[in-house]
What we know:
mainly alpha, flat
Amino acid sequence: MILARLRNQTFFSLDELNERIAELVVELNDRKMRVYGRAAVNSSSGSIVPHCLPLPERRFEWGSGRT
């Protein structure tokens, strides 16, 4: 979504690009999700939708793939 919106724009500095990306992130987070009927991030509290699962207690460990 963000890359698609940036593809026809020209930026003359990294700061200018970062500023535009920050604007688009806010815009994207404020969009309503079809499934929930509300935005992913609550603008007033900054919290993410409560339907997200918590992260696991243990870190994922990569295996060799061989038994």
